[in-house]
Design a protein that fits this description.
The protein starts with a helix and ends in a 6-residue tail after the last helix. It has 11 helices and 10 strands. The mean pLDDT is 83. It folds into 4 domains: 62 residues, Winged helix-like DNA-binding domain superfamily/Winged helix DNA-binding domain (Arc Repressor Mutant, subunit A, Orthogonal Bundle), CATH 1.10.10; 51 residues, no CATH class; 83 residues, SH3 type barrels (Roll), CATH 2.30.30; 82 residues, Alpha-Beta Plaits. A 4-stranded antiparallel beta sheet has the order 3-4-5-6. Helix 1 packs across helix 3, helix 4 runs parallel beside helix 6 and helix 10 crosses helix 11. It is α+β, with helices and mostly antiparallel strands and 325 residues long.
């Protein structure tokens, strides 16, 4: 009986490791006959594991999804990876996920062999988390799941949105991607009323109304989803914007300019136009100095004045006397 139980566990492990197995393959791995494999499959079914079988030359066995998740057999590396992932999820700014992850890691560590528990505890004790910039914005888990389903099924969504200034609006959009940046979740979508791509912070979104709208054919994204979100977040958060001619090829400037700060457009004379934003004229002037190229600020006057002040400060520093050269 002990040998049969061990063989059942090995069979279950094989079925969880690959999508489908043929009878001869399983028999060879378990070193038994195909009739024994069929009996063991029936024993697993009796225990509640949904093992499906197909007949014929191309037939085989596969473990399907059931009404409840059966116990999983994990390798050492898989168990440690899940434990580390759960610890990370416990710090996720999604309501309910942190508590569920904490309960799951407690259950997993309780049954881990001592050697694996020691690895997980050592990793947790040796790791220091550096908090991301900005506060975590908690997202409702039900709303997150609803938006994710709409992205998957290509369904138009309607939702209430709170702008940065606190005012509200009703939005209709075609959701394309969910993007995590720092400790915030964003929805990248095509805004049907504005006819353009928009980035929405999920913690400011009311859950999409149900039923959701009609299905749509996904549009081609003009850039990488992460870059589009960075551009959208940067444009929304910048209090000051400036147009700057940079005397350098556009590719080299793009390499230095984050999409969250600005966009670079090629000009015909080998230079490029930078449309950049920042919290203040002084911050924008300091950022332009980092470009390592000659530039001209076209507007606004506030940024031009800060650039002149910064140039004068650098000139005084060059004399080594603290006064003008």
């Amino acid at each position: 009986m002990q040998q049969t139980s061990a063989r059942l566990l090995e069979l279950l492990s094989l079925l969880q490791a690959r999508r489908e197995w043929t009878g001869p393959e399983l028999a060879a791995r378990l070193e038994v006959g195909e009739r024994t494999v069929r009996r063991d499959v029936e024993r697993l079914r009796a225990l509640g594991y949904p093992v499906a079988a197909t007949r014929g030359a191309a037939g085989g066995y596969r473990l399907e999804a059931g009404a409840a998740m059966p116990p999983l057999l994990l390798s050492d590396d898989e168990a440690v990876a899940i434990a580390v992932g759960l610890r990370t999820a416990a710090r996720n700014p999604v309501s309910g996920i942190d508590e569920s992850a904490a309960r799951a890691i407690a259950k997993l560590e309780q049954v881990l062999p001592p050697r694996l528990r020691a690895r997980v505890v050592a990793l947790a004790g040796a790791t220091v988390d550096v908090p991301p910039d900005g506060e975590a914005a908690v997202v409702d888990s039900d709303a997150l799941a609803a938006f994710a389903a709409a992205v998957r099924d290509h369904e138009t969504v309607r939702f209430d949105y709170a702008r940065h200034d606190g005012s509200g609006s009703r939005r209709r959009a075609e959701p394309h991607r969910l993007v995590v940046w720092g400790r915030r979740w964003y929805l990248l979508a095509w805004d049907l009323d504005r006819g353009d791509w928009r980035t929405f912070r999920l913690d400011r979104c009311g859950g999409p109304t149900t039923p959701v709208g009609p299905r749509f054919t996904p549009r081609e994204l003009p850039a990488d989803p992460a870059d589009l979100v960075r551009q959208g977040v940067g444009a929304a958060g910048a209090r000051v914007r400036a147009r700057v001619v940079v005397h350098a090829p556009a590719p080299s400037v793009r390499h230095r300019v984050s999409p969250a700060v600005g966009t670079v457009t090629t000009r015909g004379d080998g230079s490029c136009l930078l449309d950049a934003g920042a919290d203040s004229p002084a911050a924008l002037a300091r950022y332009l100095a980092w470009l390592d190229a000659d530039f001209e600020v076209l507007d606004p006057p506030e940024v031009q004045a800060e650039v002149r002040a910064l140039a004068a400060r650098y000139a005084r520093a060059d004399t080594g006397t603290g006064g003008p050269s």
